[in-house]
């Protein structure tokens, strides 16, 4: 007799959280669940409410309505709110916010009791974060990446139930950002720490987090794995936000396919269940060169407008040579193996793999 899998332990549960600053609403009823030991990216454009939600979880801001649970209720409909220092939260701000007059060692152990500082906790964190040789330096003697590792070590010092990271890599230059991000996420996974990472960088969210919650206009637009958000976004707007997207008008047939005009009949990932007008999502890597076959059903002839060469692949911007209601003015195609094509070159493209579609909204 097989055993029923144990339900995942919830580290953070946010229910119906609303927050306004004066007459300006920011959060409109956010619901979010974060499982213990996972890294969740809170992704959204500027002004979507990401930092406000993080500050509500930390206790720096009080929600007007809604509850926040961190294993137990810490905020309840604006009536009962536990102070930030009693929530067992680790917080890593964008700039690290280290104390300039304290050494690395002192910064990490700042919030610890004398007994905790003596029991070797700071030395453990110095070793974990690769900062042992820098223990007596001051923040101005450190690189940006080293400062962020100090900030993380300080956030981990009191064994928090969850670590909140507010765009911690955005101030770093491009070359440094990837390595520092990799180091910090490896530390979080090694310690099994639950973390919520605020970011506006889609690539960062897709490549690092176990799950992604997209915050849009003060609400969670979708919460799922990177693949779920990329392959089956909830709507066309979300599709265009999470990665490059070709959005085409199509006719949904009701039998699990869509007629995309010159690109032919496309198989849907999930049947939209209705027939009629709709929108189809084709990711750039789904557009492939059709070889020597001429234009016809399922093959689109287009002219290269721009070619971005990255070595491992190439991103083409092409203009379809066939006019019609189905096609946008420009399409994006990602070709493997770094194919280089000059502007003005004619290419023939076809769609490979199933696509996502949405019925047109009811008028």
UniProtKB/TrEMBL annotation:
**Keywords on this record?**
ATP-binding, Cell inner membrane, Cell membrane, Ion transport, Iron, Iron transport, Membrane, Nucleotide-binding, Translocase, Transport
Which SUPFAM superfamilies does the entry link to? Answer: MOP-like (SSF50331), P-loop containing nucleoside triphosphate hydrolases (SSF52540)
Q: Which InterPro entries match?
A: AAA+_ATPase, ABC_SmlMolc_Importer, ABC_transporter-like_ATP-bd, ABC_transporter-like_CS, ABC_transpr_FbpC, Mo/tungstate-bd_C_term_dom, P-loop_NTPase, Transp-assoc_OB_typ2
Answer whether the UniProt record assigns the keyword Transmembrane to this protein. Answer: no
Residue spans making up a coiled coil are: none
Q: Which GO terms describe its molecular function?
A: ATP binding
Per the record, a Pfam family? Answer: ABC_tran
SMART domains xref list: AAA (SM00382)
- Annotated membrane-spanning segments are none
User: Sorted alphabetically, which CDD domains does this protein's record hold?
Assistant: ABC_Carb_Solutes_like
| UniProt domain ABC transporter: residue ranges | 12-242
Entry-linked Gene3D superfamilies: 2.40.50.450, P-loop containing nucleotide triphosphate hydrolases (3.40.50.300)
This protein's name: ABC transporter ATP-binding protein
């Amino acid at each position: 007799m097989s055993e029923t899998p144990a339900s995942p332990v919830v580290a953070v549960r946010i229910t119906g959280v609303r927050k306004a600053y004066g007459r300006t609403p920011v959060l409109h009823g956010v619901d979010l669940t974060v499982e213990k030991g996972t890294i969740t990216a809170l992704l959204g454009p500027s002004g979507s409410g990401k930092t406000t939600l993080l500050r509500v979880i930390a206790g720096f801001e009080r929600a007007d309505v809604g509850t926040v649970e961190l294993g137990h209720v810490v905020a309840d409909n604006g009536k009962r709110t536990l102070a930030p220092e009693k929530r067992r939260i680790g917080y890593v701000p964008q700039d690290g916010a280290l104390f300039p007059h304290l050494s690395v060692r002192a910064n990490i152990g700042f919030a610890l009791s004398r007994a905790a500082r003596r029991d070797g906790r700071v030395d453990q964190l110095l070793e974990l974060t690769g900062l042992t040789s820098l223990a007596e330096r001051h923040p101005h003697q450190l690189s940006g990446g080293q400062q962020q590792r100090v900030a993380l070590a300080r956030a981990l010092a009191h064994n928090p139930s969850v670590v909140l990271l507010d765009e911690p890599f955005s101030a770093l230059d491009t070359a440094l950002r990837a390595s520092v991000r990799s180091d910090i996420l490896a530390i979080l996974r090694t310690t099994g720490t639950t973390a919520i990472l605020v970011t506006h960088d889609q690539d960062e969210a897709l490549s690092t987090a176990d799950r992604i919650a997209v915050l849009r206009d003060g609400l969670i637009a979708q919460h799922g794995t990177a693949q779920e958000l990329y392959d089956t976004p909830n709507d066309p707007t979300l599709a265009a936000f999470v990665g490059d997207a070709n959005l085409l008008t199509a006719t949904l047939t009701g039998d699990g396919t869509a007629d995309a005009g010159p690109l032919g009949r496309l198989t849907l990932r999930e049947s939209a269940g209705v027939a009629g007008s709709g929108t189809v999502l084709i990711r750039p890597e789904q557009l492939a060169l059709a070889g020597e076959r001429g234009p016809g059903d399922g093959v689109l002839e287009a002219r290269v407008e721009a070619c971005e060469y990255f070595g491992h692949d190439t991103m083409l911007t092409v203009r379809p040579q066939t006019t019609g209601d189905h096609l946008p003015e420009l399409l994006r195609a990602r070709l493997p193996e770094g194919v280089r094509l000059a502007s003005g070159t004619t290419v023939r493209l076809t769609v490979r793999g199933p696509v996502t579609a949405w019925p047109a909204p009811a008028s």
